[in-house]
Amino acid sequence: MTLRPHRPSDHSDGLAFFNPPLPQDWAPAPRPDAWPEEPDDPEFIERGSPDGPRRVKPTRFLRWALSSLTDKPERIIDPPPQGDPFATPEPGRISITFIGHCTFLLRAPLPGGRVLTVMTDPIFSERCSPFSFIGPRRLRAPGRTLAELPKIDVLLISHCHYDHLDLPSLRAIARRDDPIVITPLGNSDLLAKAGLRRVSELDWWDSMRFGDVAVTCTPARHFAQRTPFDGGRRLWGGLTLKLPAVGDVGPSAIFFAGDTAHGPHWQEIREKLGVPDLALLPIGAYSPRSFLHRVHADPVEAVAAFLTLEAKKAVAMHFGTFPLSREPLGEPERCLADTVAWAGLPPDAFTPLSFGETRLVSLA
Asked: The domain containing residue 238 runs over which residues?
């Protein structure tokens, strides 16, 4: 890809993007006894001495990564989905439909009886891969097909990984709906290949408006790469949607975290953008922790993020859809429920949706 210069910052040297270093006083999230931190796996990690630096074994990591390209996991058949994704939510509520992985359909009321329909990181394809015949294959079908969903006004794309920026899905949406697209820096060339014309790229903390709705790009601790040659050339991040007041109901905010590890960015987001009414937070693809802790939060860390953000409600994502890691199927949801209880939170404060489920969530 052609290098496009960007303004230097704490996460860019002007050409490549990177994660800012963690502060020296950064501490891991407190953990319930039932879910201790996973120790270094000697299958993947080696040290020259007991106190020496940790090093990932490159050949073992490569074998593990390649195994997901050809694995044929047993297919999960979900029950028929509940709820109506076309329903018009009343002021003070939004409709949220979980398609799977990090794909949600959100419908929010706007002034004048209008409804805004937003989709996050759409992927309906059988594999998250540059190829249709190889790569991580779905564990289950999408909770809803695109044909079963209303017209999409806005797409929020968090980063360029194949399980988040899926060109076949985007082409289908572009042909049908021609939505506005909002994404971090460097992704517009990929989106143009999908036929998406109305694309806005944002740096961290940049905002844009369409009508009476605002979107802000927020930091995430992750990375971005689609080929061996484009590492760090595109930015990754979360996106916060600020919705206007409707009638007697005040403005509200929805935070979509994208892919991210645990980090101090949660506090920054809370301080700069305020408390989100709803947070969509990742809970899966975290094992082996020896190296995935750098890019993916686990459920315990997701609850810590929820508490730091002081979000009113949270919905889980990034689990149970593609075989991207080694934790057992269903473990992220169990760990989340246990950690929510351990933290003294109501069971419905932070919960997953069933695949395909449409739920009305109060933002008041």
From this structure: 81-352
Question: Which amino acid would we find at residue 20?
Answer: P
Closest CA to 230 of 161, 128, 131: 161
Strands 278-282 and 213-218: unpaired
Number of domains in the chain: 1
Residue 282 and residue 319: Cα distance in Å, rounded? 8
291: CB partners within 8 A, 6+ apart: 44, 45, 56, 61
CATH of the domain at 263: 3.60.15.10
Say how far apart CA 342 and CA 357 lie, in whole Å: 26
Is there a domain that residue 243 lies in?
yes
| Residue 205's pLDDT band (cuts 50, 70, 90) | very high
Q: Whole-prediction pTM value?
A: 0.94
Instruction: Please check whether residue 148 is in contact with residue 212, taking contact to mean a CB–CB distance below 8 angstroms.
Output: no
| Residue 348 domain flag | yes
Determine, yes or no, domain membership for 155.
Answer: yes
With tokens 């074994």, the residue in question is 57
